[in-house]
Protein backbone atom coordinates (compact mmCIF):
# COMPACT_ATOMS: atom_id res chain seq x y z
CA UNK A 1 0.00 0.00 0.00
CA UNK A 2 1.35 3.42 -0.97
CA UNK A 3 0.69 6.15 1.51
CA UNK A 4 0.73 9.63 0.00
CA UNK A 5 1.48 12.62 2.17
CA UNK A 6 0.20 15.94 0.97
CA UNK A 7 0.23 19.36 2.55
CA UNK A 8 -2.82 20.44 4.54
CA UNK A 9 -5.48 22.27 2.56
CA UNK A 10 -5.45 22.20 -1.23
CA UNK A 11 -2.13 20.73 -2.36
CA UNK A 12 -2.56 20.80 -6.13
CA UNK A 13 1.16 20.55 -6.94
CA UNK A 14 1.68 17.68 -4.50
CA UNK A 15 -1.33 15.84 -5.88
CA UNK A 16 -0.16 16.25 -9.48
CA UNK A 17 3.34 15.05 -8.59
CA UNK A 18 1.98 12.00 -6.78
CA UNK A 19 -0.38 11.25 -9.64
CA UNK A 20 2.47 11.21 -12.16
CA UNK A 21 4.36 8.70 -10.06
CA UNK A 22 1.29 6.51 -9.50
CA UNK A 23 0.40 6.45 -13.19
CA UNK A 24 4.04 5.69 -14.13
CA UNK A 25 4.03 2.70 -11.74
CA UNK A 26 0.54 1.66 -12.87
CA UNK A 27 -0.73 1.59 -9.30
CA UNK A 28 -4.47 1.07 -8.94
CA UNK A 29 -6.56 3.32 -6.70
CA UNK A 30 -7.07 0.40 -4.32
CA UNK A 31 -3.33 0.26 -3.67
CA UNK A 32 -3.06 3.87 -2.55
CA UNK A 33 -3.79 5.45 0.80
CA UNK A 34 -4.47 9.19 0.40
CA UNK A 35 -5.40 9.81 4.00
CA UNK A 36 -2.00 11.41 4.76
CA UNK A 37 -1.01 12.06 8.37
CA UNK A 38 2.10 10.94 10.16
CA UNK A 39 0.83 7.64 11.62
CA UNK A 40 2.39 4.51 10.12
CA UNK A 41 0.27 2.81 7.50
CA UNK A 42 -1.59 -0.34 8.58
CA UNK A 43 -0.38 -1.96 5.44
CA UNK A 44 3.30 -1.04 5.66
CA UNK A 45 5.06 1.48 3.47
CA UNK A 46 5.94 0.73 -0.11
CA UNK A 47 8.84 2.07 -2.15
CA UNK A 48 8.79 5.83 -2.85
CA UNK A 49 7.23 7.09 -6.05
CA UNK A 50 9.57 8.05 -8.90
CA UNK A 51 10.35 11.76 -8.72
CA UNK A 52 10.88 12.18 -12.47
CA UNK A 53 7.74 10.52 -13.82
CA UNK A 54 6.44 12.16 -17.05
CA UNK A 55 3.32 14.37 -16.99
CA UNK A 56 -0.02 12.63 -17.43
CA UNK A 57 -1.96 13.74 -20.49
CA UNK A 58 -5.53 14.51 -19.46
CA UNK A 59 -8.47 16.19 -21.20
CA UNK A 60 -8.68 19.84 -20.26
CA UNK A 61 -12.01 19.42 -18.46
CA UNK A 62 -10.44 16.79 -16.20
CA UNK A 63 -7.51 19.10 -15.43
CA UNK A 64 -9.92 21.92 -14.56
CA UNK A 65 -12.00 19.65 -12.37
CA UNK A 66 -8.88 18.54 -10.47
CA UNK A 67 -8.00 22.22 -9.91
CA UNK A 68 -11.29 22.92 -8.16
CA UNK A 69 -11.97 19.63 -6.39
CA UNK A 70 -8.60 19.61 -4.56
CA UNK A 71 -9.91 22.75 -2.80
CA UNK A 72 -12.86 20.86 -1.27
CA UNK A 73 -12.79 19.91 2.40
CA UNK A 74 -13.90 16.35 1.71
CA UNK A 75 -11.05 14.08 2.99
CA UNK A 76 -11.79 11.64 0.16
CA UNK A 77 -11.23 14.21 -2.59
CA UNK A 78 -7.77 12.98 -3.66
CA UNK A 79 -8.84 9.33 -3.70
CA UNK A 80 -11.89 10.19 -5.82
CA UNK A 81 -9.78 12.18 -8.27
CA UNK A 82 -7.29 9.35 -8.47
CA UNK A 83 -10.12 6.96 -9.42
CA UNK A 84 -11.21 9.39 -12.10
CA UNK A 85 -7.71 9.72 -13.55
CA UNK A 86 -7.18 5.94 -13.41
CA UNK A 87 -10.24 5.41 -15.60
CA UNK A 88 -9.44 8.32 -17.97
CA UNK A 89 -5.90 7.10 -18.69
CA UNK A 90 -7.32 3.64 -19.32
CA UNK A 91 -9.41 4.93 -22.19
CA UNK A 92 -12.55 6.58 -20.73
CA UNK A 93 -11.45 10.02 -21.94
CA UNK A 94 -14.96 11.41 -22.25
CA UNK A 95 -15.90 10.10 -18.85
CA UNK A 96 -17.03 13.51 -17.55
CA UNK A 97 -19.84 13.49 -20.11
CA UNK A 98 -21.41 10.54 -18.31
CA UNK A 99 -23.27 12.53 -15.69
CA UNK A 100 -25.10 9.50 -14.30
CA UNK A 101 -21.84 7.74 -13.42
CA UNK A 102 -21.75 7.79 -9.58
CA UNK A 103 -18.10 8.93 -9.46
CA UNK A 104 -18.69 11.72 -11.99
CA UNK A 105 -21.84 12.78 -10.14
CA UNK A 106 -20.04 12.96 -6.81
CA UNK A 107 -17.12 14.93 -8.25
CA UNK A 108 -19.54 17.32 -9.95
CA UNK A 109 -21.12 18.08 -6.57
CA UNK A 110 -17.71 18.79 -5.04
CA UNK A 111 -16.81 21.01 -8.00
CA UNK A 112 -20.07 22.94 -7.67
CA UNK A 113 -19.60 23.50 -3.95
CA UNK A 114 -16.09 24.90 -4.45
CA UNK A 115 -17.22 27.16 -7.30
CA UNK A 116 -20.02 28.50 -5.17
CA UNK A 117 -17.59 29.17 -2.34
CA UNK A 118 -15.24 31.00 -4.73
CA UNK A 119 -18.12 33.11 -5.99
CA UNK A 120 -19.14 34.02 -2.43
CA UNK A 121 -15.61 35.00 -1.49
CA UNK A 122 -15.23 37.15 -4.62
CA UNK A 123 -18.58 38.83 -4.00
CA UNK A 124 -18.72 39.18 -0.21
CA UNK A 125 -15.19 39.82 0.93
CA UNK A 126 -14.89 43.42 2.15
CA UNK A 127 -11.71 45.23 3.00
CA UNK A 128 -11.45 47.50 6.01
CA UNK A 129 -9.09 50.40 5.85
CA UNK A 130 -6.46 50.38 8.57
CA UNK A 131 -3.91 53.04 9.27
CA UNK A 132 -0.43 51.62 9.20
CA UNK A 133 2.32 54.19 9.70
CA UNK A 134 4.95 51.46 9.25
CA UNK A 135 3.77 50.68 5.77
CA UNK A 136 6.28 52.55 3.68
CA UNK A 137 5.30 50.97 0.34
CA UNK A 138 2.08 52.93 0.31
CA UNK A 139 3.66 56.12 1.59
CA UNK A 140 2.86 55.24 5.20
CA UNK A 141 -0.80 55.49 4.37
CA UNK A 142 -3.56 52.99 3.76
CA UNK A 143 -3.63 49.28 4.15
CA UNK A 144 -6.69 47.13 3.75
CA UNK A 145 -7.48 44.06 5.77
CA UNK A 146 -10.33 41.61 5.24
CA UNK A 147 -11.53 38.67 7.27
CA UNK A 148 -13.43 35.90 5.50
CA UNK A 149 -14.53 32.36 6.42
CA UNK A 150 -14.68 30.17 3.33
CA UNK A 151 -16.19 26.70 3.50
CA UNK A 152 -13.32 25.12 1.55
CA UNK A 153 -9.58 25.50 0.96
CA UNK A 154 -9.98 28.19 -1.67
CA UNK A 155 -7.72 30.96 -0.40
CA UNK A 156 -4.86 30.38 -2.83
CA UNK A 157 -7.27 29.83 -5.70
CA UNK A 158 -8.84 33.26 -5.13
CA UNK A 159 -5.51 35.11 -5.08
CA UNK A 160 -5.35 35.96 -8.84
CA UNK A 161 -8.85 37.48 -8.62
CA UNK A 162 -7.99 39.82 -5.74
CA UNK A 163 -4.57 40.74 -7.14
CA UNK A 164 -6.12 41.67 -10.45
CA UNK A 165 -8.92 43.65 -8.88
CA UNK A 166 -7.01 45.43 -6.13
CA UNK A 167 -3.59 45.56 -7.71
CA UNK A 168 -2.84 49.09 -6.57
CA UNK A 169 -3.77 48.62 -2.91
CA UNK A 170 -1.73 47.10 -0.10
CA UNK A 171 -3.93 44.42 1.40
CA UNK A 172 -4.14 41.35 3.58
CA UNK A 173 -6.84 38.69 3.53
CA UNK A 174 -7.12 36.61 6.67
CA UNK A 175 -9.06 33.35 6.89
CA UNK A 176 -9.10 30.31 9.18
CA UNK A 177 -7.51 28.23 6.39
CA UNK A 178 -4.73 30.55 5.22
CA UNK A 179 -3.91 34.15 4.46
CA UNK A 180 -2.82 36.30 1.53
CA UNK A 181 -0.74 39.43 1.60
CA UNK A 182 -0.25 41.75 -1.39
CA UNK A 183 2.20 44.67 -1.28
CA UNK A 184 1.47 45.97 -4.81
CA UNK A 185 4.31 43.91 -6.21
CA UNK A 186 4.31 40.44 -4.78
CA UNK A 187 1.94 38.03 -3.17
CA UNK A 188 2.75 36.09 -0.02
CA UNK A 189 0.70 33.09 1.00
CA UNK A 190 0.63 32.76 4.75
CA UNK A 191 -0.74 30.49 7.45
CA UNK A 192 -4.25 30.24 8.87
CA UNK A 193 -5.29 33.25 10.92
CA UNK A 194 -7.61 33.97 13.79
CA UNK A 195 -10.27 36.61 13.46
CA UNK A 196 -8.83 40.02 14.38
CA UNK A 197 -10.60 41.47 17.39
CA UNK A 198 -10.94 44.85 15.88
CA UNK A 199 -11.33 45.80 12.26
CA UNK A 200 -12.11 49.44 11.80
CA UNK A 201 -15.58 49.49 10.27
CA UNK A 202 -16.44 53.14 10.39
CA UNK A 203 -14.24 54.27 7.57
CA UNK A 204 -15.38 56.08 4.45
CA UNK A 205 -14.86 52.86 2.60
CA UNK A 206 -17.64 51.10 4.49
CA UNK A 207 -19.87 54.12 4.08
CA UNK A 208 -19.24 54.09 0.34
CA UNK A 209 -20.33 50.46 0.14
CA UNK A 210 -23.45 51.21 2.13
CA UNK A 211 -24.36 54.10 -0.13
CA UNK A 212 -23.69 51.97 -3.19
CA UNK A 213 -25.81 49.11 -1.89
CA UNK A 214 -28.70 51.33 -0.81
CA UNK A 215 -28.81 53.08 -4.16
CA UNK A 216 -28.90 49.80 -6.09
CA UNK A 217 -31.60 48.38 -3.85
CA UNK A 218 -35.00 48.38 -5.49
CA UNK A 219 -37.69 48.28 -2.78
CA UNK A 220 -40.31 47.21 -5.33
CA UNK A 221 -38.39 44.01 -5.97
CA UNK A 222 -37.49 43.15 -2.41
CA UNK A 223 -37.47 39.44 -1.75
CA UNK A 224 -35.86 38.63 1.60
CA UNK A 225 -35.74 34.88 0.88
CA UNK A 226 -33.86 35.37 -2.37
CA UNK A 227 -31.60 37.93 -0.72
CA UNK A 228 -30.72 35.51 2.04
CA UNK A 229 -30.11 32.69 -0.46
CA UNK A 230 -27.69 34.87 -2.42
CA UNK A 231 -26.12 36.51 0.60
CA UNK A 232 -26.39 34.01 3.47
CA UNK A 233 -26.39 35.40 6.97
CA UNK A 234 -22.96 34.04 7.81
CA UNK A 235 -21.41 36.66 5.50
CA UNK A 236 -23.33 39.59 6.94
CA UNK A 237 -20.94 40.23 9.81
CA UNK A 238 -18.19 41.20 7.37
CA UNK A 239 -20.34 43.24 5.03
CA UNK A 240 -20.60 46.94 5.84
CA UNK A 241 -23.69 47.25 3.66
CA UNK A 242 -25.41 44.42 5.55
CA UNK A 243 -26.08 46.89 8.36
CA UNK A 244 -28.54 48.52 5.99
CA UNK A 245 -30.37 45.35 4.94
CA UNK A 246 -32.90 44.89 7.78
CA UNK A 247 -33.73 48.61 7.66
CA UNK A 248 -34.15 48.52 3.89
CA UNK A 249 -36.37 45.44 4.04
CA UNK A 250 -38.52 47.00 6.78
CA UNK A 251 -38.87 50.25 4.89
CA UNK A 252 -39.46 48.65 1.47
CA UNK A 253 -43.31 48.72 1.54
CA UNK A 254 -43.34 52.36 2.59
CA UNK A 255 -40.79 53.26 -0.08
CA UNK A 256 -42.80 51.50 -2.78
CA UNK A 257 -45.90 53.39 -1.67
CA UNK A 258 -43.94 56.64 -1.77
CA UNK A 259 -42.71 55.82 -5.28
CA UNK A 260 -46.27 55.18 -6.46
CA UNK A 261 -47.51 58.41 -4.91
CA UNK A 262 -44.62 60.40 -6.32
CA UNK A 263 -45.33 58.98 -9.77
CA UNK A 264 -49.01 59.91 -9.49
CA UNK A 265 -48.24 63.40 -8.25
CA UNK A 266 -45.39 64.11 -10.66
CA UNK A 267 -47.22 66.20 -13.29
CA UNK A 268 -48.61 68.57 -10.64
CA UNK A 269 -45.47 69.08 -8.58
CA UNK A 270 -42.91 71.72 -9.25
CA UNK A 271 -39.62 69.97 -9.85
CA UNK A 272 -36.61 72.30 -9.81
CA UNK A 273 -34.87 70.15 -12.43
CA UNK A 274 -37.87 70.52 -14.69
CA UNK A 275 -37.36 74.26 -14.61
CA UNK A 276 -34.07 73.67 -16.37
CA UNK A 277 -35.90 71.32 -18.69
CA UNK A 278 -37.91 74.26 -19.87
CA UNK A 279 -35.01 74.90 -22.20
CA UNK A 280 -36.04 71.71 -23.93
CA UNK A 281 -39.69 72.80 -23.93
CA UNK A 282 -40.75 69.22 -24.29
CA UNK A 283 -40.56 65.92 -22.48
CA UNK A 284 -38.54 63.40 -24.52
CA UNK A 285 -39.88 59.86 -24.43
CA UNK A 286 -36.74 58.17 -25.72
CA UNK A 287 -32.99 58.70 -25.73
CA UNK A 288 -33.13 59.44 -29.45
CA UNK A 289 -35.69 62.19 -28.82
CA UNK A 290 -33.59 63.63 -26.01
CA UNK A 291 -30.54 63.60 -28.28
CA UNK A 292 -32.43 65.51 -30.97
CA UNK A 293 -33.26 68.18 -28.41
CA UNK A 294 -29.65 68.42 -27.23
CA UNK A 295 -28.37 68.68 -30.80
CA UNK A 296 -30.81 71.47 -31.58
CA UNK A 297 -29.94 73.55 -28.49
CA UNK A 298 -27.44 76.40 -28.54
CA UNK A 299 -24.33 76.00 -26.43
CA UNK A 300 -24.53 77.83 -23.11
CA UNK A 301 -21.13 79.32 -23.86
CA UNK A 302 -20.86 80.15 -27.56
CA UNK A 303 -18.08 78.79 -29.75
CA UNK A 304 -18.52 75.04 -29.84
CA UNK A 305 -19.18 73.52 -33.24
CA UNK A 306 -21.68 70.95 -32.05
CA UNK A 307 -23.15 69.17 -29.06
CA UNK A 308 -21.40 65.91 -28.28
CA UNK A 309 -23.84 63.18 -27.32
CA UNK A 310 -23.30 60.12 -25.19
CA UNK A 311 -22.17 56.96 -26.93
CA UNK A 312 -22.87 53.32 -26.14
CA UNK A 313 -25.75 50.89 -25.74
CA UNK A 314 -28.91 51.65 -23.80
CA UNK A 315 -28.96 49.14 -20.95
CA UNK A 316 -25.15 49.23 -20.58
CA UNK A 317 -24.20 47.99 -17.11
CA UNK A 318 -21.66 50.79 -16.64
CA UNK A 319 -22.08 54.43 -17.59
CA UNK A 320 -18.97 56.61 -17.52
CA UNK A 321 -19.44 60.34 -17.10
CA UNK A 322 -16.67 62.79 -18.00
CA UNK A 323 -16.52 66.56 -17.80
CA UNK A 324 -17.15 68.02 -21.24
CA UNK A 325 -16.01 67.38 -24.81
CA UNK A 326 -12.52 68.60 -25.66
CA UNK A 327 -11.22 70.12 -28.87
CA UNK A 328 -11.08 66.86 -30.80
CA UNK A 329 -14.45 65.68 -29.51
CA UNK A 330 -15.96 68.97 -30.68
CA UNK A 331 -14.53 68.45 -34.15
CA UNK A 332 -15.52 64.78 -34.46
CA UNK A 333 -18.80 64.98 -32.54
CA UNK A 334 -17.94 61.91 -30.41
CA UNK A 335 -17.00 61.68 -26.72
CA UNK A 336 -13.55 60.61 -25.53
CA UNK A 337 -11.68 60.50 -28.82
CA UNK A 338 -8.87 62.96 -27.92
CA UNK A 339 -5.79 62.25 -25.77
CA UNK A 340 -7.74 61.80 -22.51
CA UNK A 341 -10.23 59.59 -24.31
CA UNK A 342 -7.47 57.43 -25.71
CA UNK A 343 -6.00 57.00 -22.26
CA UNK A 344 -9.43 56.11 -20.93
CA UNK A 345 -9.94 53.55 -23.71
CA UNK A 346 -6.59 51.89 -22.88
CA UNK A 347 -7.37 51.82 -19.15
CA UNK A 348 -10.82 50.35 -19.78
CA UNK A 349 -9.29 47.63 -21.88
CA UNK A 350 -6.75 46.79 -19.19
CA UNK A 351 -9.53 46.69 -16.63
CA UNK A 352 -11.42 44.14 -18.73
CA UNK A 353 -14.19 46.54 -19.80
CA UNK A 354 -14.78 46.68 -23.52
CA UNK A 355 -15.37 50.33 -24.38
CA UNK A 356 -18.22 49.49 -26.75
CA UNK A 357 -20.16 47.79 -23.94
CA UNK A 358 -20.10 50.86 -21.69
CA UNK A 359 -22.07 54.07 -22.09
CA UNK A 360 -19.75 57.11 -22.29
CA UNK A 361 -21.01 60.61 -21.84
CA UNK A 362 -20.25 64.01 -20.35
CA UNK A 363 -21.73 66.26 -17.70
CA UNK A 364 -21.60 69.19 -20.13
CA UNK A 365 -22.43 68.65 -23.76
CA UNK A 366 -20.53 71.52 -25.43
CA UNK A 367 -16.83 72.34 -25.59
CA UNK A 368 -15.88 75.48 -23.65
CA UNK A 369 -12.59 77.13 -24.53
CA UNK A 370 -10.61 80.32 -24.98
CA UNK A 371 -8.94 80.96 -28.33
CA UNK A 372 -5.16 81.52 -28.34
CA UNK A 373 -4.25 82.12 -31.95
CA UNK A 374 -5.24 78.94 -33.75
CA UNK A 375 -5.40 76.93 -30.56
CA UNK A 376 -8.56 76.42 -28.54
CA UNK A 377 -7.65 76.01 -24.87
CA UNK A 378 -9.99 73.99 -22.70
CA UNK A 379 -11.81 75.88 -19.93
CA UNK A 380 -13.48 74.08 -17.04
CA UNK A 381 -17.23 74.63 -16.79
CA UNK A 382 -18.52 76.59 -13.83
CA UNK A 383 -20.87 75.02 -11.26
CA UNK A 384 -23.71 77.01 -12.84
CA UNK A 385 -22.94 75.60 -16.27
CA UNK A 386 -22.84 72.07 -14.88
CA UNK A 387 -26.24 72.67 -13.31
CA UNK A 388 -27.60 74.00 -16.57
CA UNK A 389 -26.78 70.69 -18.31
CA UNK A 390 -27.71 68.45 -15.40
CA UNK A 391 -31.28 67.76 -16.44
CA UNK A 392 -30.09 66.42 -19.77
CA UNK A 393 -27.56 64.15 -18.10
CA UNK A 394 -30.09 62.78 -15.62
CA UNK A 395 -32.61 62.14 -18.37
CA UNK A 396 -29.96 60.47 -20.46
CA UNK A 397 -28.99 58.15 -17.60
CA UNK A 398 -32.61 57.34 -16.89
CA UNK A 399 -32.94 56.07 -20.48
CA UNK A 400 -29.67 54.14 -20.36
CA UNK A 401 -30.47 52.60 -16.94
CA UNK A 402 -26.90 51.61 -15.97
CA UNK A 403 -26.26 49.57 -12.86
CA UNK A 404 -23.25 51.69 -12.01
CA UNK A 405 -22.28 55.25 -12.87
CA UNK A 406 -18.54 55.98 -12.82
CA UNK A 407 -17.69 59.66 -12.55
CA UNK A 408 -14.36 60.86 -13.88
CA UNK A 409 -13.13 63.91 -12.01
CA UNK A 410 -14.77 66.66 -10.00
CA UNK A 411 -17.13 68.08 -12.63
CA UNK A 412 -18.83 64.75 -13.25
CA UNK A 413 -19.05 64.08 -9.50
CA UNK A 414 -20.60 67.54 -9.03
CA UNK A 415 -23.16 66.78 -11.74
CA UNK A 416 -24.18 63.51 -10.10
CA UNK A 417 -24.19 64.64 -6.47
CA UNK A 418 -25.00 68.35 -6.70
CA UNK A 419 -22.08 69.12 -4.39
CA UNK A 420 -18.38 69.71 -4.68
CA UNK A 421 -16.61 66.35 -4.25
CA UNK A 422 -12.93 66.07 -3.21
CA UNK A 423 -12.22 63.28 -5.68
CA UNK A 424 -8.96 61.92 -4.28
CA UNK A 425 -10.48 61.69 -0.81
CA UNK A 426 -13.83 60.24 -1.84
CA UNK A 427 -12.52 58.00 -4.56
CA UNK A 428 -14.27 54.61 -4.47
CA UNK A 429 -17.76 53.10 -4.32
CA UNK A 430 -20.72 55.29 -3.51
CA UNK A 431 -24.34 55.82 -4.45
CA UNK A 432 -25.82 58.48 -6.74
CA UNK A 433 -29.51 58.49 -5.88
CA UNK A 434 -31.01 55.69 -7.94
CA UNK A 435 -27.69 54.48 -9.30
CA UNK A 436 -24.76 52.70 -7.78
CA UNK A 437 -21.77 55.00 -8.11
CA UNK A 438 -18.02 55.02 -8.27
CA UNK A 439 -15.91 58.15 -7.97
CA UNK A 440 -12.52 58.26 -9.64
CA UNK A 441 -10.11 60.71 -11.26
CA UNK A 442 -10.36 62.11 -14.77
CA UNK A 443 -7.84 60.74 -17.29
CA UNK A 444 -6.74 64.30 -18.11
CA UNK A 445 -5.54 64.55 -14.49
CA UNK A 446 -3.17 61.67 -15.30
CA UNK A 447 -2.00 63.46 -18.46
CA UNK A 448 -1.23 66.59 -16.46
CA UNK A 449 0.86 64.89 -13.77
CA UNK A 450 4.52 65.93 -13.87
CA UNK A 451 6.67 63.22 -15.47
CA UNK A 452 8.14 60.86 -12.90
CA UNK A 453 7.64 57.66 -11.03
CA UNK A 454 4.24 58.63 -9.69
CA UNK A 455 2.67 58.78 -13.14
CA UNK A 456 2.77 55.04 -13.76
CA UNK A 457 1.40 54.36 -10.28
CA UNK A 458 -1.41 56.89 -10.76
CA UNK A 459 -2.34 55.17 -14.00
CA UNK A 460 -2.27 51.75 -12.32
CA UNK A 461 -4.54 53.12 -9.58
CA UNK A 462 -6.95 54.37 -12.23
CA UNK A 463 -7.03 50.96 -13.94
CA UNK A 464 -7.53 49.36 -10.57
CA UNK A 465 -10.53 51.65 -9.91
CA UNK A 466 -12.08 50.63 -13.22
CA UNK A 467 -11.51 46.95 -12.45
CA UNK A 468 -13.10 47.47 -9.11
CA UNK A 469 -16.10 49.13 -10.74
CA UNK A 470 -16.36 46.17 -13.10
CA UNK A 471 -16.26 43.86 -10.10
CA UNK A 472 -19.09 45.76 -8.40
CA UNK A 473 -21.29 45.30 -11.43
CA UNK A 474 -20.38 41.64 -11.77
CA UNK A 475 -20.86 40.82 -8.12
CA UNK A 476 -24.25 42.53 -8.16
CA UNK A 477 -25.18 39.87 -10.78
N1 LIG B 1 -12.74 64.85 -21.50
C1 LIG B 1 -14.01 64.62 -21.13
O1 LIG B 1 -14.37 64.77 -19.98
N2 LIG B 1 -14.86 64.18 -22.04
C2 LIG B 1 -14.54 63.94 -23.28
O2 LIG B 1 -15.38 63.53 -24.06
C3 LIG B 1 -13.19 64.17 -23.65
C4 LIG B 1 -12.32 64.62 -22.75
Largest sheet: 5 strands, mixed
Q: Treating each run of at least 4 consecutive H or I residues as one helix, how many helices? A: 18
What is the CATH topology classification name of the largest domain? Uracil-DNA Glycosylase, subunit E
Instruction: Supply Rg.
Output: 28 Å
Give an account of the 3D structure:
The structure is a single chain. The chain has helices at 12-25, 60-69, 77-89, 102-124, 155-165, 204-216, 224-230, 233-236, 245-265, 272-277, 287-296, 327-332, 339-350, 383-400, 409-417, 423-426, 443-448, 453-475; strands at residues 2-3, 32-33, 128-131, 142-147, 171-175, 178-182, 187-190, 318-322, 359-362, 369-372, 375-378, 404-408, 428-432, 435-440. The radius of gyration is 28 Å and the shape is elongated. A hairpin with a 2-residue loop joins strand 5 and strand 6 (178-182). It is of the alpha/beta class. Helix 3 (77-89) packs across helix 4 and helix 11 (287-296) packs antiparallel against helix 14. It starts with a strand and ends with a helix. It has four domains: 2-121, no CATH class; 125-190, no CATH class; 203-265, no CATH class; 273-476, Uracil-DNA Glycosylase, subunit E (3-Layer(aba) Sandwich). The strands form four sheets. A five-stranded mixed β-sheet has the order 3-4-5-6-7, with helices on one face. It has a five-stranded mixed β-sheet with strand order 9-8-12-14-13, sandwiched between helices. Strands 1-2 form a two-stranded parallel sheet. The structure holds uracil (URA).
Amino acid sequence: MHRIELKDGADLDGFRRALRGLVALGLEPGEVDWSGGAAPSLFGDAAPLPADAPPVSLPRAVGDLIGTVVCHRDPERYALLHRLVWRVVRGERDMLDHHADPLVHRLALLDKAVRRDLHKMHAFLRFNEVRDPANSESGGAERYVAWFEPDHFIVEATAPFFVERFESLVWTILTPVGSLHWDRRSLTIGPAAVKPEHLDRDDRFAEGWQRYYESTFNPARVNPTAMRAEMPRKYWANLPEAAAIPRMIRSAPARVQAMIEAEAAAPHRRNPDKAVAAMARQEPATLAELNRIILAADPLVPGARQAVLGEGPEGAAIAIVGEQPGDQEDVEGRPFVGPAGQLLTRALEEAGIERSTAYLTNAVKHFKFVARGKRRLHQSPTAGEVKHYRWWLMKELSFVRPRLVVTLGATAALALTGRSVPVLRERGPTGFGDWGGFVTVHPSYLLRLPAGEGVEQAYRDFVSDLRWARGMVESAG
